[in-house]
């Protein structure tokens, strides 16, 4: 992985700011990624965003995205991945924020397939992982979170690659920071990967039931869809942000 990581670190033209200082701490793969994007009223999101973060807008509009994918080969730098821990299906529900002129994402919820992986991920990262029953096929993805009443049941078809990305395509996908509130502290994880390769996607069947407070995506068709075969990702240690 180190040879591939070094090659990745040489490719930075697509990044909005320079690489973080110091050595990256984790590498991982986000594979077979599905992106479901919705425009939402900013007033529904603001109560869910920690102080110290500002909602990021595209042409005056706020967005949220539901992102089902398969996490693979996640491991600390210098150690081999253990598939029974490092490989699992995941769904994150995110919105778009900015702090210190660095746009990134803030996770409203993260679901993962394996209980042990959830426990370790929460312990090491602090991110809001929780267990859900998740399975996927070549063109299907299914998840049930009984505790929160979340449900995703979709059948999809990948269409033509997007060769010329729109500004919105790039704004939604090219994010190089993850933000986290833990207790009374606010943190940023910086990441690096090559530019996303994305394609059009069509939903053949869709049941989507996700709601937090008044933010409700249930059975509402996404405003935009993307598919990507995935990216390899390097992640640096988190740093605290002063509010």
The average pLDDT value, as a whole number, equals 95
- The sequence of SSEs as H and E is HEHEEHEEHEEEEHEEEEEEE
- What's the N-to-C terminus distance? 36 Å
Count of individual helical segments: 5
Low-pLDDT residue spans: none
Query: What is the strand tally?
Result: 16
CATH topology: Acetoacetate decarboxylase-like
- Number of structural units classed as domains: 1
As laid out across the biggest beta sheet, the strand order is 1-3-4-5-10-11-15
Largest sheet: 7 strands, mixed, barrel
CATH structural class: Mainly Beta
* Strand residue content: over 45%
Backbone structural class: mainly beta
By CATH, the architecture is named: Beta Barrel
* Shape annotation: globular
Radius of gyration: 17 Å
User: What is the helix fraction of residues, given as a range?
Assistant: 10-25%
